[in-house]
Amino acid sequence: MEALATFKKELSSPKNIFITTHVKPDADALGSSLGLANYLIKKGHKVTVVTPTDYPYFLTWMKGNDEVLDFSKPSEKAQAQSRLEEADMIFCLDFSVLNRVNELGELIRKSKAFVVNIDHHQDPEDFAHFRYWSTKAAATCELVYELIVELGDESLIDKDIAECLYAGIMTDTGGFRHPNTTKNVHLVVAELLDKGADSSQIANLIYDSNSVNRLKFIGFAITRRLVVREDLHTAYFVISKKDLKKYQSQTGDTEGLVNYALSLDGIKLAALFSEREDGIKISFRSSSDVAVNKFAASHFNGGGHKNAAGGKSAQTLKETVERFESLVEQCQVELFHSDPVVAD
Ligand code: 5GP
Ligand code: MN
């Protein structure tokens, strides 16, 4: 692993830079990528942002959105691939394991470029030359802000960059409510506001841009697709392909749904199972004393943070949910009573 000094040296002359982030980017993934891209462009680099898949419509306001290439779109893939081949540097943002970027993962592994990983997820894979990583950071956007400051370029953070970064911090802290909302988060956000970020407008763009279909879908899911197992402190949604089709679901429409399950009194573990083209996608959320990332990694080929993680399953929806329920039953002690047992 190279040091910060080597990284700085790499960046000291104009470079071809390729930035990517995880599948189905959220506000932290896209905000950190575009915030960093806008900064690097100001420094004179040639920058391309490529996402492995599409992302929610409520993120498309960020500066640079129109130039983002989607690797899953046949019409954009060839261009994205040639930008990757030309790249001197590759930045991997908001993910720590290369299987989070689909096919791009192996291309990055084989690339001769200088690879940088900026992230806040646990258990990073060793694929980067330089890693700017901390699980103490609430968001990758917080780390991008700190990196720009570390490079001595705080004055280059303008309103557009500040708004990209603010968006990721706002959503990864659940609107400044999760336990990761540290003093540092507030200090960084104060600086971003100072740079011109319009906090209420960003909240409005992200949280108050529902389509009628989405709102109806949320109502349907809460009334018809929520399973509550009070005995297991667990509640979860099961959403089939047919349900998604019926409500003409768009990317991002299930975002946040899992939190309704966690909001129930007495519920400590919440999940959302959604049946997608490529298998079952699972979101896990938990109260502060329950760790879901290890559960996701051990049983659902996933990972994430202590209280917000995800995974996948190649079984049917029904089989996946049945397996989940029996795992929660089996793992109750590990999940809900993890305090050290003191011997008499
Ligand atoms: P979400 O439920 O919002 O998709 O994801 C919650 C958190 O878990 C995010 O930090 C995300 O990066 C992580 N995550 C979601 N799905 C996966 C997955 O399949 N693998 C891993 N390693 N992390 C995931
Ligand atoms: Mn993040």
TrEMBL record:
Q: Which SUPFAM superfamilies match?
A: DHH phosphoesterases
Q: What is its EC number?
A: 3.1.3.7
Q: Which GO terms describe its molecular function?
A: 3'(2'),5'-bisphosphate nucleotidase activity
Q: Which UniProt keywords apply?
A: Hydrolase
Q: Which InterPro entries match?
A: DDH_dom, DHH_sf, DHHA1_dom, Oligoribo/pAp-PDE_c-di-AMP_PDE
Tell me where in this chain the DHHA1 domain is found.
Answer: 250-331
Q: Which residues form the DDH domain?
A: 16-169
* Domain of life per record: Bacteria
Q: Which protein are we looking at? A: Bifunctional oligoribonuclease/PAP phosphatase NrnA
